[in-house]
Structure to design on (688 residues):
């Protein structure tokens, strides 16, 4: 019996040893294929059937409460939403705030008092912080939705009427895929996250899954830095990791505005050649960092496309159409190879083609 | 040496000794990574901005005033630098004096309102700082501005001496200047008299108002220098991130007042305090502790140091 067991063990080890390089190669090839698939200009995919947006929205209004007007990424989306609503001719207001939940509460109460039809909690204004006010607004007849907060697999939080999601899981996967493909499966990464953001769970699950399935030998450590501490804690945390882990070859700040504090830590440690940065969001100033070499890759979302997609979902809800969960906002991998397409300096809406503009015009039946 | 002298010396150098002990503990736990020159160059090179903000606070604190606007001055001047350099293409030899002048102007506004209207500096600088934050968000359209001239980064973090980014030496140079100014000049003595007792200062012939105004201007200019270095460190300007440095800078200023010249805000004490705190945080990061432990260390170190300092000095009543 013992002889049988040891023969089986030896045979298993030999098979595993033979299979592992092939498995690693497969993982690297899959990762590279994923990156290639998301490196080109994305195609427009409609989230639902066409509808006459101008006619249906003529007597309706939307009130947008962004997570913070002081965050460049979010400010750009709200500005674009306001422009599109203006072009469609319906009432749209933005509650400018600096990320304080009491300001969000004031905003939702303002929306109720001024009889808006829908409140859009945009990109991080988390309704779990003010559930009673959400309920009160719904009782007053308003629809309350979260836009660009949850991943596709996450349910609408705090009883809101709908959640229009982004494929955050895919963003997490692509960040892991990039590092796997670039290193041939020899990743040693520090992943910087902010757990209080709802999207973090989704991004981290995609990233973890990609490493688990395509590169089990890859090493990565996840550290949490709360959003309010980005300016004071990211730099020393990264600096400490650079010292304690000399084999580190990637830092993955999962939101690209974190990069401002990651790149100085790498520069001060003089490790710019050995340690690369990959991230997610496509904020213009970070795309510019790709051009100067401080950031290797940024997964971009077209902020104007997001504005179109969120308004599309919100208008559908007000027009009595089926709610939209998957916004169909695509992701694109930006690196030194294609950063020229994002403009110089980079523009939030460049590098994604313009098919979506015509696509939404057709969808909303406002084509010239 | 008498026992009281020994206690005084222990109080003067207590934080330095604790700093060395902290280095020894982390060094013993991770000798291969913590006790390396590259790690110390990271520790010294990464917090020059915080040192300068702390030094900026020391000047009005010595005169008995608070400058809560200094972090917003940093953020505003950082944004001004980025806009002039990246958006308007202005050369650095124009950007730097304009930025320093903006910092000085903010100091004049703080000082004038405080002195003319006789409002406490805490309230005035809180208001001016909040106003500046609004201006910063306005001029930047709430966007991070990148694309700053690479020459600025060259003169802040890329050039090095002994492997340490040059910004560290700027901070040490400014500390030496403030130390000399406070200890060996007539103005330094007037500043101290003003802080210790305004009426006494006035009766001994000190132009208290002028001294306080100059201290606000100096603080504003230090904020502007910190803003320039912040932009040079990150290569960009963010409309709100510099504001997070206010509380760490105050913590370092108060911690610094427990050493070198105990009971007085002083330049070298502030430098020691910043690097003591940074060493602790760096060591915890190297050991892989989670980030909330950094807050435990920051807050705990401040409270323990102040308590120990008071115990050594016989729990004398202190007016900081």
């Amino acid at each position: 019996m013992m002889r049988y067991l040891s023969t089986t063990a030896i045979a298993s080890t030999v098979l595993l040893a033979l299979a592992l390089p092939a498995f690693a190669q497969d993982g690297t090839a899959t990762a590279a294929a994923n990156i290639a698939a998301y490196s080109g200009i994305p195609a427009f995919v409609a989230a639902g059937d066409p509808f006459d947006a101008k006619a249906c929205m003529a007597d309706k209004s939307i009130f947008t409460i962004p997570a913070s007007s002081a965050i460049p990424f979010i400010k750009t989306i709200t500005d674009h939403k306001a422009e599109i609503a203006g072009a469609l001719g319906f009432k749209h207001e933005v509650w400018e705030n600096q990320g304080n939940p009491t300001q969000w509460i004031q905003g939702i109460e303002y929306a109720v008092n001024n009889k808006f039809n829908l409140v859009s909690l945009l990109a991080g204004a988390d309704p779990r912080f003010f559930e009673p006010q959400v309920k009160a607004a719904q009782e007053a007849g308003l629809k309350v939705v979260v836009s660009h907060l949850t991943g596709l697999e996450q349910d609408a939080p705090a009883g809101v009427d709908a959640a229009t999601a982004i494929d955050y899981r895919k963003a997490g996967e692509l960040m892991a895929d990039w590092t796997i493909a670039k290193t041939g499966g020899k990743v040693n990464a520090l992943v910087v996250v902010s757990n209080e953001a709802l999207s973090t769970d989704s991004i981290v699950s995609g990233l973890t899954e990609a490493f688990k399935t395509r590169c089990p030998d890859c090493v990565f450590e996840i550290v949490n830095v709360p959003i309010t501490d980005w300016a004071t804690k990211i730099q020393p945390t990264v600096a400490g990791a650079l010292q304690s882990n000399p084999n580190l070859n990637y830092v993955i700040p999962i939101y690209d505005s974190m990069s401002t504090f990651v790149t100085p830590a790498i520069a001060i440690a003089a490790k710019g050649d050995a340690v690369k940065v990959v991230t997610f969001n496509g904020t213009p100033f970070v795309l510019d960092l790709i051009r100067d070499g401080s950031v290797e890759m940024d997964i971009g979302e077209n902020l104007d496309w997001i504005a179109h997609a969120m308004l599309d979902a919100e208008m559908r809800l007000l027009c009595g159409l089926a709610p939209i969960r998957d916004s169909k906002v695509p992701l694109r991998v930006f690196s030194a190879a294609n950063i020229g397409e994002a403009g110089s300096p980079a523009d939030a809406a460049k590098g994604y083609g313009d098919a979506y503009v015509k696509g939404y015009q057709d969808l909303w039946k406002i084509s010239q | 040496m008498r026992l009281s002298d020994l206690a005084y010396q222990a109080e003067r150098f207590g934080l330095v000794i604790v700093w060395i002990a902290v280095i020894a503990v982390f060094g013993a736990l991770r000798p291969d990574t913590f006790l390396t020159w590259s790690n110390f160059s990271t520790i010294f090179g990464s917090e020059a901005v915080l040192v300068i903000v702390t030094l900026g606070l020391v000047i009005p604190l010595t005169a008995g005033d608070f400058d809560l606007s200094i972090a917003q001055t940093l953020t505003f001047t950082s944004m001004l630098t980025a806009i002039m350099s990246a958006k308007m293409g202005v050369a650095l030899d124009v950007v730097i004096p304009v930025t320093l002048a903006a910092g000085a102007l903010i100091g004049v506004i703080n000082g004038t309102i405080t002195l003319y209207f006789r409002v406490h500096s805490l309230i005035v600088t809180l208001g001016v700082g909040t106003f500046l934050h609004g201006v910063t968000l306005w001029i930047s359209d709430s966007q991070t501005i990148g694309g700053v001239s690479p020459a600025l980064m060259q003169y802040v973090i890329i050039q090095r001496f002994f492997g340490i980014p040059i910004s560290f030496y700027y901070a040490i140079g400014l500390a030496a200047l403030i130390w000399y100014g406070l200890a060996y000049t007539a103005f330094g003595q007037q500043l101290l008299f003003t802080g210790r007792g305004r009426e006494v200062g006035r009766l001994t012939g000190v132009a208290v108002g002028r001294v306080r105004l100059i201290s606000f201007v100096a603080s504003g200019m230090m904020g502007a220098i910190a803003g320039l270095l912040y932009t040079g460190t990150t290569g960009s300007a963010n409309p709100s991130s510099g504001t997070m440095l206010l509380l760490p800078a105050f913590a370092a200023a108060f911690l610094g007042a427990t050493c070198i010249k105990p009971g007085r805000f002083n330049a070298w004490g502030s430098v020691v305090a910043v690097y003591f705190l940074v060493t602790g945080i760096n060591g915890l990061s190297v050991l892989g502790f989670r980030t909330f432990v950094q807050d435990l260390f920051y807050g705990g170190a401040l409270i323990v140091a102040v308590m120990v300092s008071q115990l050594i000095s016989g729990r004398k009543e202190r007016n900081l």
